[in-house]
Specification:
Elements (H helix, E strand, L loop, with lengths): L2 E2 L15 H29 L15 E2 L20 E7 L5 E5 L8 E6 L5 E6 L8 E6 L13 E4 L4 E8 L7 H9 L2 E4 H5 L9 E2 L6 H4 L4 H9 L10 H7 L17 H24 L10 H4 L3 H11 L8 E9 L4 E5 L7 E11 L14 E3 L13 E6 L11 E3 L4 E11 L1 H5 L7 E3 L3
Parallel strand pairs: 1-11, 7-8, 16-17
Antiparallel strand pairs: 2-3, 3-9, 4-7, 4-10, 5-6, 5-9, 12-18, 13-16, 13-19, 14-15, 14-18
Helix pairs in contact: 1-5, 1-7, 1-9
InterPro entries: DUF1214 (IPR010621), DUF1214_C_sf (IPR037049), DUF1254 (IPR010679), DUF1254_sf (IPR037050)
Protein name: DUF1254 domain-containing protein
Organism: Variovorax robiniae
């Protein structure tokens, strides 16, 4: 069987590079472009190609469902959503389309299948907001597919890339609700189109040999090798990126092009390293003034090829939902000081489905272990107490705010922490910025 492999060979004459200053500028641009794709590959390698990894889902074309909320022991991704247990699956669309079937879901339960391509664009949605809670089958096709839509398919979603991912979320309403979540997840089904139609399968696509992911290499000049591997599954290039890819080719970037840093001249390698450093600096500076993740996730059309925004989205919270699906906001606080978040009457988060605030440690951005085992708080938290005037006050801090206030307490580490608010099914006011999250206010001692 033919193999698609990660190749490390001497650079060819076609990969000759321009001046050192031009190499540096191209490398900076390319690293920002590649950053979310490589962060995505980190997840893909563990879930698809690394059976020994705890995150392994079983390979391509298989669902792995989690039926309970995340805990501090889960490190699959940073800033995990603790309201809706995850289901993961990756599909290879090269040989033929795949069909995704979903069950009828009770109207009061929110769920969403977010579909993401190798660029990390959210190119398709199935679920409560997008398609409703009724049962149905949906077909996913790759960039080369030209067939007809068969009977029984509600909608066809076309991906720019041959490999795609779903991060599916199903709302969990407390520990007693786990069985109901499992029932919804069990009704989700993946099939190749030939299996769906009960017809013989077409010839298999070449086997993929996934390169082992090394974070140090992924964020050095060797990012080029990973990018070249991934670009094999993004052909033909988007029309808006033809010129970009031609420019990138000047430093050895291209679909399946071999990359071996040891074969580059010292000057060329130094220029690429300088460009990578420039990119990291630019991302850090832009990150300081990017205080919300809204607008960092969406379709290619939504993102308008703003590669810095796409990179910051992956850095701040890989696989964030598009704004129409979920609004994100939050704070960085100091747990040594008790603070409040006060929602005035009529100013609670405007959610069609529900809202929550989840606490993360810094700098790793995982859930914070605490004696209450409370990792998030929101409109579904049992015992949450409203203020006398109908408003709501939340308490964030390492020490208890007092027994009478613990129902509204989100425990934090003693030092720095991050609190992320999520509004599922945000109103127009939230999406436009007319509604704003109230400030995190230290309590006077």
């Amino acid at each position: 069987m033919a193999t698609i492999a990660f190749m490390v060979q001497p650079a060819t004459a076609q990969n000759s590079v321009p001046s050192a200053s031009e190499v540096r500028a191209i490398a900076k641009e390319a690293y920002i472009y590649a950053f979310p794709m490589i962060e995505n590959y980190n997840t893909m390698y563990k879930q698809v190609a690394s059976p020994q990894a705890p995150e392994y889902v079983g390979g391509l074309g298989k669902f792995r469902h989690y039926s309970e909320a995340f805990t501090p022991d889960n490190h699959d991704i940073v800033t995990p959503n603790n309201d809706t247990p995850y289901s993961w699956a990756w599909m290879d669309l090269r040989a033929e389309p795949w069909v995704v079937s979903v069950p009828a879901v009770p109207n009061q339960r929110y769920y969403v299948q977010q579909w993401i391509d190798l660029f990390t664009y959210n190119f398709a949605y199935i679920g409560s907001r997008a398609t409703g809670n009724q049962a149905g089958s949906y077909m996913f096709v790759g960039p080369h597919w030209k067939g007809k839509t068969p009977a029984g398919i509600k909608k066809v979603f076309r991906s720019e890339t041959d490999i795609i991912l779903t991060l599916t979320r199903t709302a969990l309403n407390g520990p007693d609700d786990v069985a109901a979540v499992k029932a919804v997840q069990a009704g989700m089904k993946l099939q190749t189109l030939s299996a769906f139609l009960r017809k013989p399968a077409p010839p298999a696509a070449p086997q993929i040999e996934f390169p082992a992911y090394d974070p140090a290499k992924g964020h050095s000049h060797d990012f080029i090798g990973y990018l070249n591997f991934l670009l094999q599954f993004t052909q033909p290039p988007n029309a808006s990126e033809v010129g970009l890819m031609k420019r990138f080719s000047e430093i050895g970037i291209g679909p399946g092009v071999p990359f071996d840093a040891s074969k580059l001249s010292p000057d060329s390698l130094a220029a690429i390293d300088a460009g990578v450093a420039d990119a990291k600096t630019a991302m850090a500076e832009q990150g300081k003034v990017t205080l919300s993740s809204n607008g960092l996730f969406g379709t290619r059309a939504d993102m308008k090829n703003d590669y810095m925004k796409r990179a910051l989205g992956a850095q701040k919270g890989l696989y964030g939902n598009s704004l129409i699906e979920a609004w994100y906001g939050g704070y960085v606080g100091d747990g040594s000081k008790l603070s409040t978040v006060h929602f005035a009457p009529g100013q609670l988060p405007p959610a069609k489905f529900f809202w929550s605030m989840t606490l993360y440690t810094l700098p790793d951005r995982f859930l914070y272990a605490n004696n209450l085992k409370r990792y998030s708080i929101g409109d579904r938290t049992p015992g949450l107490k409203r203020d006398a005037d109908g408003g709501l006050t939340l308490y964030l801090g390492h020490a208890s705010p007092g027994a009478d206030k613990e129902s509204n307490w989100l425990p934090t580490p003693e030092g720095k922490y991050s609190a992320v608010a999520r509004v599922y099914g945000p109103s127009k006011a939230a999406m436009s910025g007319a509604w704003k999250l109230p400030p995190l206010t230290p309590v006077a001692q």
